[in-house]
Amino acid sequence: MLDFSVFTAEVFKAYILQGLYFSLVLTVVATLGGIVFGTVLALLRLSGIKPLELVAATYVNGMRSIPLLMVLLWFFLMVPFIIGRPIGAELTAVITFVAFEAAYFSEIVRAGIQSISRGQVYAGQALGMSYGQNMRLVILPQAFRNMIPVFLTQTIILFQDTSLVYIITAHDLLHGFTVAGNNLSRPRESYILAAVLYFVICFSLSWIVKRVQQKIAIIR
Questions:
Q1: Which of 3, 43, 61, 89 is paired with 186 by a 20 to 30 Å CA distance?
Q2: Among 40-54, 57-71, 122-136, which stretch is predicted with the lowest mean pLDDT?
Q3: What span, in angstroms and rounded, lies between the C-alpha atoms of 120 and 62?
Q4: For position 219, what pLDDT does the model report?
Q5: Degrees (nearest 5) of the Cα angle 167, 107, 98?
Q6: How many CA atoms lie within 13 A of 6 on its CB side?
Q7: Cα 151 to Cα 157: distance, rounded to the nearest angstrom
Q8: Is 171 helix (H, G, I), strand (E, B) or coil?
Q9: Mind listing the pLDDT tens digit for each residue in 64-89?
Q10: Confidence check: pLDDT of 126 > 90
């Protein structure tokens, strides 16, 4: 019989809270880092300079063609081998997620930039703006506003993917539930509660995305 009574507030505080904190921090850092580096990659792909386009396209297509779990294991095993010392599971997770998500956010940003009408570009050029000024003051602000719902959707996927860091023993939300379940001899209950908590968080974020989409539609 299932018994959830052992999962008290003290158990959540001792085992789960730290893992939830790391999962949320990893999600936020990977999202912000992914957007920053993804924007750089998108601008390189749209620069019209062939060598830069080739480098950015190779990185993006390469990352998007490899499973995140494989990239995570590569960083975890190869980086310490290259630099000669371990860097820890948590730092490995942060580096991997930022590098991996940059490829996905790059495609989102590139699509957002290309969705802006050429008339906006011509208007900026007519005002005497340089390429950089036009992109920074005219194109990117409109593109980022249009991309907010997609950014948030990708962030939800990213949060779900943080459970993969369990494979390198990083103390994420899933790892916290696993340790609690093993110590309390209730692994089935712990995984059920983990699924419920993931569902509640992701469903809540999905509701927020829907509301944001509605507000953006009204602004338009």
A1: 89
A2: 122-136
A3: 32
A4: 55
A5: 35
A6: 15
A7: 10
A8: coil
A9: 999 999 999 988 888 888 888 888 88
A10: no
